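User: Okay, second chain of the day. Same drill as before: sequence in, structure tokens out.
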Amino acid sequence: MAEFDKVVALRAPTAVNFMRADARHYTILIRVDRIARLFNSLDPTPFRERDLDDDAERFIVEWAQEAPANVPIEIVIQLPKEETNSVSEQTVTHAVQYNFEGRATQANRELRELLREGRRALIIGIPILAFSLVQVRWSTI
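Assistant: Same drill. Structure tokens below.
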């Protein structure tokens, strides 16, 4: 097993934890032997904009869902000594934040569309319900 020298900590404004929880944050610990294992190898985009590997993303999301909602998230990625430098730390930090910011933006977009469809259905449904209730009332008289 590779020797892990440094820890890259990525903080987000919401809650997540794996292995340890304290009053200040919930921590997810990820240990990798190469930075490249965190990212989708088939994604042709630049490293900083590359999608996370499906397994890594699923791991983070599943543990994030277990966290209390009122505690900030901390993702700690332990890297091998050979791959640890300030450039790699900044790149990994940016890439993970970019990935989850994009995911949050997409979720917000989908929610807005769902609410728009719901309002449209409500606007159509209320007059139909009112008309039906009036018809039933008039037909029983």
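The chain has one domain: 4-139.

User: Thanks, on to the next one.
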